[in-house]
Amino acid sequence: MSTDCLFCKIVAGDIPSDKVYEDEHVLAFRDIAPQAPVHILVIPKAHVATAAHVTGENADLVAACFAAIPQIAKAEGLDSGFRVITNCGEDGGQTVFHLHFHLLGGRSLGANLL
Ligand code: AMP
After folding, report:
1. What is the per-residue pLDDT for 94?
2. How many helices (H) and strands (E) does the chain have?
3. Percent of the chain at pLDDT above 90?
4. Ligand 1 pocket check for 33: Cβ under 6 Å
5. Are residues 12 and 104 in contact, defined by beta-carbon separation less than 8 angstroms?
6. What is the pLDDT of residues 54-79, one digit of tens each?
7. What's the gap in Å between 6 CA and the centre of ligand 1?
8. Which residues does 61 contact at the CB level (< 8 Å), separation at least 6?
9. CB-ligand 1 contact for 88 (6 Å cutoff)
10. How many whole angstroms from 94 Cα to the centroid of ligand 1?
11. 82 Cβ partners below 8 Å, 6+ apart?
12. Is 102 a catalytic residue?
């Protein structure tokens, strides 16, 4: 845990979240400022700052997130598809420096990323 990390505080229960999924390694909760009808953040419980900090040592945490995503999508009724995004670093638009995957859906998101 990183003591000054917002998402570590959510994992610890020190800051409330609208939790939709949890297992040993993963927590998922609704984004506070949703960009789509379904907007969920899927995070490893362990602190990894960004996608640039993923290594052979901690890549199992990424795998755990991606194993959870289809289950969450199914529970949310995203049967016709969804988008998964991770912003990395300053130029990537990352604002919370704890690795997270945005799971977006509930409407047609179009073909363009931006
Ligand atoms: P990013 O800009 O990719 O780092 O995404 C950070 C996301 O965290 C943004 O979409 C925010 O709306 C979201 N966010 C910030 N604080 C909270 C919070 N307390 N609970 C849920 N989502 C949050």
Report:
1. 98
2. 2, 5
3. 94
4. yes
5. no
6. 999 999 999 999 999 999 999 999 99
7. 9
8. 25, 44, 46, 48, 99
9. no
10. 9
11. 38, 73, 103, 104, 105
12. no
